[in-house]
Amino acid sequence: MKTVYLDAFSGLSGNMFLGALVDAGVPAAALRETIAKIDLKGFELKIGSANKCGIQATHIDVDLTSRHHHRGLTDIVKLIRAADLPDPVKDKACLVFERLGAAEAKVHGMPLEKVHFHEVGAVDAIIDIVGTVFGFHYLGIERIFCSPLRVGRGFVKAAHGVMPIPAPATAELLHRIPWYPGDIDRELVTPTGAALVAELCSGFGDRPAGFLAEKTAYGAGTWDLIIPNVLRLQIGTTPAEKDRDSKWLLAANVDDSTPEVISYVIDKLMAAGAVDAWITPIIMKKGRPAFLLSALADESCKGKVEDVVFAETSSIGVRWQEVQRTVADRSIVPVATEWGSVGVKVAERNGQVINIAPEFGDCRVLAEQTGAPLKKIYQAALNAWSALKR
Known about the structure:
It is a single chain. The protein contains eleven helices and 18 strands. By secondary structure, the chain is α+β, with helices and mostly antiparallel strands. The chain has a five-stranded mixed sheet with strand order 9-4-1-11-10. Strand 6 (155-158) and strand 7 form a beta hairpin.
């Protein structure tokens, strides 16, 4: 599986994420085009390089050219949803902001709808979050893991006064994530960086078992420190999942939603981490037609999947049971087409290939960038894979 390992020995922030992703192969032009699709004005995206203690890294900075007002979560989500971006990018970016907003709301003791983001609601945070989610989507990353985070120590001046490091919202976001202060008197992990890893990462700690790095990239931070102020991002592969595993099966009856709403809920379930989601028509008591909403999820994202059901449907109860499943061995084989690289998912069982399928997300990105028909890119990827096997 195409996997990223983040080595956050010098902390992380939104611009460090962006710099590392561009250094890893996301074209600067593609990043600029993505940001341009959001209705934002009064900024300049500066992309360059920086040397941090001997390590050459990509540095990205959002230079604000005019004054911006604070935004609430609803305003930010509307901006993202209105942008002409792939649905998975919009869904995941909104989830990052919702996580960030929930942390701010808890820290300041106010309802989520009352939170104005101050530093994290500025234009640069919107660019950092949407750009980072797009970057991983563009590269076709399937899983992201992260080292323990060096957060820094001391105090930082924020909109609400002098705060301890990690700042309260950051500390809230780092629940169940390993971190340590280190010996640097700086805020090394920002709320934006914390929200991104909290939402995007599958696990934290040492490199995942079997991870084989194929590319190393560096994103530069703002500080000049006694250690390299960079985020190291490694792209590689991890072994295909074992043929048998256990998942949690969610079930909820929904009897007063339209098909459009149910379709939207399924997208939200997938964005929250479900490995699959589907609906089944059913007849409930008193002859009422309804939908049985089902989803498969790992233990790690079970709560987030359940939250989507309660937030987005009228269901007042969710049933869970642990189930076993058998899965084919899967791998992603990159192939070259005249429009760019596409990952082809290859499924095998007992040493035999049983299915091949170009990654739809890769094909869609190339189609949007080049104007070529999606079906031509899809077929070209199939042909390229077949040519590799001759």
